[in-house]
Amino acid sequence: MTFGKPDGPQTNNSNPFIGTSAASNQGYRYAIYETLVQYNDVDPSQKPKAWLATKWEWNTDYTQVKFTIRNGVKWSDGTPLTAEDVAFTFNLIKNTPALNTSSIPFGDITTSGNTVTINFTSNQFVHQTAMNGQFIVSEHIWKNQDPTKWTNQKPVGTGPYVLKTWSTQGVTLTANPNYWGGKLKVPTIRYVEHNDNTSLTSAMTSGQVDDGFVYIANYKTAWLAKNKANQAWYPSTLGNTTLFTNDAKGAFSDINFRKAVSTIIDRKQLSQQGTTGASNPITSLTGLPESGKTFISTDYEGKTFKSSASDAKAILTKAGYTGVGTKNSLKDSKGNAVSVMLTDPSGWSDYDAELQLIGSEIQELGATVTVQNPSFDTWSDQVNKGNFDGALHWTDSGFTPYNIYLDSMDQSFYKPLGQVANYNFGRFQSPEATAALKDYAAATSDAQRTKDLATIEKVYVDQVPVIPVLEVPVWGNYTSRYYTGWPTQSNPYTDINMTTPAKTLVLTKLHAAN
Question: 3-class secondary structure for 372-417?
Answer without folding.
Answer: ECCCHHHHHHHHHHCCCCEEEEECCCCCCCHHHHHHHHCHHHCCCC
